[in-house]
Amino acid sequence: MAAPEEQELSQAQTEKLLQFQDLTGLESMDQCRRTLEQHNWNIEAAVQDRLNEQEGVPSVFNPPPSRPLQVNTADHRVYSYIVSRPQPRGLLGWSYYLIMLPFRFTYYTLLDIFRFALRFIRPDPRGRVTDPVGDVVSFIHSFEEKYGRSHPVFYQGTYSQALNDAKRELRYLLVYLHGEDHQDTDEFCRSTLCTEEVVTFLNTRMLFWACSTSKPEGYRVSQALRENTYPFLAMIMLKDRKMTVVGRLEGLIQPEDLINQLTFIMEANQTYLMSERLEREERNQTQVLRQQQDEAYLASLRADQEKDRKKREEQEQRRQEEEKVRQCALAEERRRRTLEEEKERKSECLPPEPPADDPDSVKIVFKLPNDTRVERRFLFGQSLTVIYDFLFSLKETPEKFQIVTNFPRRVLPCLPTEEQPNPPTLKEAGLSRSEVLFVQDLTDD
What we know:
By secondary structure, this protein is of the alpha/beta class. 51% of the residues lie in helices and 14% in strands. The two termini are 89 Å apart. 22% of the residues are buried.
């Protein structure tokens, strides 16, 4: 069955797709489109999620197996500051309070009963977190629509990602849970959270994460922190190597009071944060030192390996040279033996020396290069090759030579050539009955 065709993108979606690709550097348009669709085409949330993935924080759409939030909330040393609602004043105030008390009690009692009964009919949809980044971004948009853009910088990511960033950067994390239905929420946002001094203080001192408890992500954090009333703020930091809640602020708190309370919490826990920084710095220095030692070891190892390689190359070169010398010696020995065998063969093939009284005989005295003299008789009718073979068979004769007459000086053609395949006889060469011939060494030539 063929897959359904993808819907065509609108012009706004196409612009967002190109902008997202430009911001993230992703090459696959399909991956860019899937990411934007997962975030309901919210480019800010999609980019934030992508950046978190690049920093090693898992994507909210590919989360690790679900586990409890890694925040220590059982520390009995947590600083808690609760602002109670002001008591009514005067006769008119108490009269209004007493008149409204039964109605208020009845309203909240019925509301709790309705919510309790509704759980059996329809499970709370907030219990299933499917798009945590979308929940946070949706809250930020609704907050800006209602209270404007002058507010602290909201962390655009999941609660877990905010915890990871605060832990990695060793910063305080202030968590704000927004109770939309609470009577003090609106006044807190307008009169406290969005004031210039609070905005400046939060932006320069800590990370700030917020979400509405009506959203699944906010509800999940609410179940972990277990607030008592709203507005609710929790200060979280790395303490004893665990992300720990070190301060809780609940109720309608004024700007100056909020800054004072947060400053008090930060100063009270500054030693823990400094200790964590020192420990991390020591770990980093140890890691750098270990890395330097590893690099030095690797450099030494590479130097030793290079020495071994050069040593092996030198040994191999010497071996090759020795082998070359040995092969040359063997070749020279083979050549010498072959030459001796050839001399013996030529000696055995020589015709017998004619007697001295033979009228056809020629007496030749050969003067060798080493100044020795050799005498032998030949017949006039024999070829000059016989003279050459006789001299070749002698041990004193060089390997290559030629026979030269003294006067007039000429080289006797003793070996066959292409122009003269059959060398002349002694008589044809013009030799007399008694001759002196010189043997010229041609070995160096």
